[in-house]
Write a structure and sequence with these properties.
The complex is a heterodimer of chains A (302) and B (281). Chain A is built from 11 helices and 14 strands. Chain A is α/β, with parallel strands linked by helices. In chain B, a hairpin with a 5-residue loop joins strand 16 and strand 17.
Chain lengths: 302, 281
């Protein structure tokens, strides 16, 4: 089923979240081939960045802790990878960008090769680089809006803003992004930061000590955030956070997500998770005898 | 979450160094509790992420008897140097695994050829031991290294029985045979046909070996264990994805069919570093 989101036609529902399998063009194309309708690349910075040393990810009983640290091949290499993705897939291409200042967000967004990008996602909520960048821009309505305001006049592409669940009033923050000219909201980024400790060496299990929490553990937080955002804005929501099953995705859509996204779920369920969830949603809608549009935000009508 | 993805920390119970002047050691751990509690089985070709206080690296399993697991580690970067220089019996190391796929001995395998080069001997030595002790498959194993001490960990294999043969080659004069691991291929294939070839080693060596083998026995099944820079090791980050075929070495591999690999434009040609930037071999 095709789906319209931010005036862009997605061939299928389901978006690969940023940071998962999003380094190389063929890796992303492969996920699209396995059923994702949209692909978000790993966040792009203007210059090449190393990210954190290993270990960058640790699985625990109920989810995943990660601190990759915004490693990036820089804008030139990223443009090449996005070109490959564009030429080898029918998926909508979402370019995730980040910067240390609103101006750097703008400059990086402008340097994207626009023919290979459909939507720009502003990653203002990475929790793992606080030492370098200070408080995330998604911390307050004002700082979030400042990034949108810087980028908005510089591009004609639809702008998504990726929000963090880790600050109060996500609804108000989303509204300030809408007022500043954002076309949609992506939520949520990882929860936390969190920490795991080795019980024999007493070292934190990540090199960065703490990292963002994702996976099944954060699903209820994500659903509540989408519910709050839906109440606050008119622009559409790309809902993600802890989705591993059809039932999870249906809850996210019922809370108000126009489309759904999967990150950690891809490593738990495999790359064909989008195909499975989309088939599941179709069967659910047929069973309930409702349309997809009826389902979006249906929890608010009860 | 999938149990094998959750790191457990174990103390080293034994270290073997085989007079390599601290260049290569084998570290052993008792993972019986994980085997029993989580129904873990470790098959040849699989690897673990090993964590020291300096970082985490993917290391192939070289020994497994159902209870004791061994990893043969060559000193290369700061994490492996930390292991070789500082780890002792009793030192706790974080183990995540078993990860990745296996060499996947075929049901049709009756007579297999195994080739290992450098520290790539580690996973295929494990396969050779498995074939010898757990199957009735006729096996020929060829191991090449710079110098004899670097393949010493594998030299407990029998040289010649009615269904098992191993030969060791060295670049220098310290070993049983001087020269490249590929030097006797023509002679070996002139005497027998194989059902499969399994290999691991320097990528250029594997390209040369596979091309030569396909000439000696067209269409033979060849399974190749690959190495790429891995950041997470659990299929998440995409650092180790092979170009054009889009497969992850950590989660879709590390062992691939040669016919799949030759569709990858980077096979034998280039790899990526920790940033994702391309470097030629």
């Amino acid at each position: 089923m095709g789906i319209n989101f931010c005036n862009v036609n997605f061939p299928r529902n389901g978006v690969l979240a940023s940071g998962i399998l999003g380094v190389t063009g063929c890796s992303m194309a492969n996920v699209a081939e396995n059923g994702a309708g949209g692909i978000t690349c790993k966040s792009i910075s203007k210059n090449e960045r190393n990210g954190h040393p290993t270990p960058v990810a640790q699985v625990y009983e109920h989810g995943l802790l990660n601190a990759v640290g915004l490693s990036s091949t820089g804008i030139d290499n990223s443009n090449k990878e996005l070109k490959y993705l564009r030429e080898n897939s029918d998926a909508v291409v979402i370019a995730s960008v980040f910067g240390a200042t609103p101006e750097e967000f703008r400059d990086t967004a402008v340097m994207l090769d626009e023919k290979n990008v459909d939507i720009i996602e502003l990653n203002i909520s990475c929790p793992n680089v606080a030492d370098e960048f200070g408080l995330a821009f998604s911390a307050t309505p004002e700082s979030a809006a400042s990034v949108v305001k810087a980028v908005r006049p510089a591009t004609n592409k639809p702008i998504l803003v990726k929000l963090s669940p880790n600050f109060p009033n996500i609804g108000r923050i989303a509204k300030s992004c809408e007022d500043a000219g954002a076309d949609g909201i992506t939520a949520i980024n990882t929860v936390g930061p969190g920490m795991l400790i080795d019980i024999h060496t007493y070292q934190p299990k990540l090199s960065n000590k703490c990292g963002g929490v994702s996976g099944p553990a954060i699903l209820p937080i994500a659903i509540r955030c989408i519910y709050d955002i839906y109440k606050s804005v008119k622009i559409p929501i790309l809902g993600m956070g802890g989705i591993t099953t059809t039932e999870d995705a249906i809850q996210m859509i019922a809370a108000g997500a126009r489309i759904y996204g999967v990150g950690t779920g891809v490593i738990i369920q495999g790359k064909d998770i989008f195909k499975k969830i989309n088939n599941g949603i179709d069967a659910y809608l047929a069973d309930k005898k409702i349309s997809y549009d009826d389902l979006v935000g249906i929890a608010h009508k009860q | 979450m999938n149990k094998q993805l959750i790191e457990k920390t174990y103390p080293i119970i034994k270290i073997e160094d085989h007079n390599t002047d601290n260049q290569q050691k084998t570290f052993f751990f008792n993972i019986e509790d994980d085997v029993i509690k989580n129904n873990i089985n470790v098959l040849p070709g699989q690897f673990y992420m090993l964590r020291t206080k300096l970082g985490q690296k993917p290391i192939s399993v070289s020994h497994f008897d159902g209870k004791i697991i061994g990893f043969t580690v060559l000193k290369r970067g700061n994490v492996t140097a930390d292991l070789l220089d500082n780890a002792d019996v009793g030192t706790y190391i974080g183990l995540t695994g078993p990860l990745g796929n296996t060499f996947d001995l075929s049901e049709n395998d009756e007579n297999i050829l195994i080739i290992g080069g450098g520290v790539g001997i580690a996973p295929v030595y494990n396969l050779a031991k498995y074939a010898l002790n757990k199957t009735n498959i006729k096996t020929t194993a060829l191991f090449g290294s710079r110098t004899a001490s670097l393949s010493a960990f594998a030299q407990d294999l029998p040289r010649q029985t009615d269904r098992f043969e191993s030969r060791f080659y060295t670049d220098d004069e310290t070993g049983e045979n001087h020269g490249f691991v590929t030097k006797d291929l023509e002679e070996i294939f002139s005497k027998q046909k194989f059902t499969s070839v399994y290999m691991c080693g320097p990528e250029k060596m594997m390209v040369i070996a596979a091309e030569q083998i396909r000439k000696l026995q067209p269409n033979i099944r060849i399974r190749i264990s690959m190495e790429r820079y891995m950041k997470c090791g659990i299929g998440l980050c995409g650092s180790c994805v092979l170009d054009d075929i889009g497969l992850r070495v950590c989660a879709d591999g590390p062992v691939f069919d040669y016919d799949v690999l030759i569709k990858s434009k980077e096979f034998g040609k280039y790899h990526r570093d920790s940033h994702g930037v391309i470097h030629s071999f």
